[in-house]
Amino acid sequence: MGVTIKQIAELAGVAPTTVSLVLRDSKKVGQETKRRVLRIIEEMDYYPNHSGKLLKQGRSDAIAVVSSYFQNIFKMEFMGGVERAIRDSGLQLRQFYAESGQEPAKCKEILFGKMADAAMALSAIADPGFLQKMRAARKPLVLVEDVVEGFPGVRFDNYACAYEAVRYLAGKGRRRISISLSMKTYMGHCFVDERLRGYIAALRDMDLAYTDIIELPAYDLESGRLMLDRILGMKEPPDALFCASGDITAAAFLKEARLRGLRVPDDIAVLGCDDSIIAHTTTLGLSTIRQPAQAMGEAALKLALSLIEGDDEAWSRVITFAPELIIRESA
């Protein structure tokens, strides 16, 4: 059982209210008494029960991040931005796991259960009816990636991302452009749906008849290597590959291509997506579309703070980040 204020008071020979005043650094307590009480507090390793006090005040002084998975380069870099933005706020950062599809329910549990004052849901598909109920109850919830217009959120323009990738590759003379995605796993999420729409629209606008969608089981190194097997087995292989599945699959493809004698970009140009740390460390510099994950994390945290602070305009604010083409040696 932990040390109590009453025990500290008895050891210091003062009333419990005096100990409370010392903890608040009140000027009502003399310096000698204050030093005596603080010495005993340190010796006894006493820490005030902030959680009980905060719950009585109806707050937790914490912000939650909810996701069905965190081991993903985008999400790790996003969390880096959140951590940077929360540093001087005096708030705690708490991470919560939720099964895929259950993120909104988890956010409801967290906010109504007062485990956090605001929540950020990563890649969570939430319906407007649920969001309207959260707004009516004044429960701050920020959607990240899969936003809903009219409700707080931070998004990346995935449509423009894919469109710009195809536009650039076509401008370099590439006529057979493939795209890699994991539709069976992630269809319904904007980072698949919008990138696919942008890809198809760009092919149409660039008057390119060739269409090739490489379905991946996951966004990992093995999937990147498997792409090369598929391409080498094609009668009419692509002369360009846009890895909308991310830099990690693009980097794996580059490595496998080098091992098996496929020349990049001579035989095939390769364009990644994210401009994560992986894009900066490949032997052949990886051209990619930059998704500013850290800036998105900072923006999401600041939007959550605005909701907590009572900014009425923040309840319908959607912050959109534009893609940026980064050219290196692979494309």
Task: Give structural notes.
The protein is an alpha/beta fold and about 325 residues long. The chain has three domains: about 5-50, no CATH class; about 55-155 and about 295-320, Rossmann fold, CATH 3.40.50; about 160-290, Rossmann fold, CATH 3.40.50. The protein is built from 13 helices and twelve strands. The protein has helices at about 5-10, 15-25, 30-45, 50-55, 75-85, 105-110, 130-135, 160-170, 185, 190-205, 220-230, 245-260, 295-310; strands at about 60-65, 90-95, 120, 140-145, 155, 175-180, 210-215, 240, 270-275, 285-290, 320, 325. A six-stranded parallel sheet has the order 2-1-3-4-5-11, sandwiched between helices. A six-stranded mixed sheet has the order 7-6-8-9-10-12, with helices on both faces. Strand 8 (about 240), helix 12 and strand 9 (about 270-275) form a beta-alpha-beta unit. Helix 5 packs across helix 13. About 40% of the residues are buried.
Residue windows where pLDDT falls under 50 for at least 5 positions? none
Q: What is the number of strand segments?
A: 12
Identify the CATH class of the largest domain: Alpha Beta
- Most strands sheet: 6 strands, parallel
- Overall mean pLDDT score? 91
Beta content: 15-25%
Strand order of the largest sheet: 2-1-3-4-5-11
- Rounded to the nearest angstrom, the radius of gyration is 26 Å
What can be said about this structure in brief?
It is built from 13 helices and twelve strands. It is of the alpha/beta class and 331 residues long. It is elongated.
Give the helix/strand layout:
Layout: H1 5-12, H2 16-23, H3 31-43, H4 50-56, E1 62-67, H5 73-86, E2 92-97, H6 103-112, E3 118-122, H7 128-136, E4 141-144, E5 153-156, H8 158-171, E6 177-181, H9 183-186, H10 190-205, E7 212-215, H11 221-232, E8 240-242, H12 247-259, E9 269-274, E10 287-290, H13 293-308, E11 318-321, E12 324-326
Parallel strand pairs: 1-2, 1-3, 3-4, 4-5, 5-11, 6-7, 6-8, 8-9, 9-10
Antiparallel strand pairs: 10-12
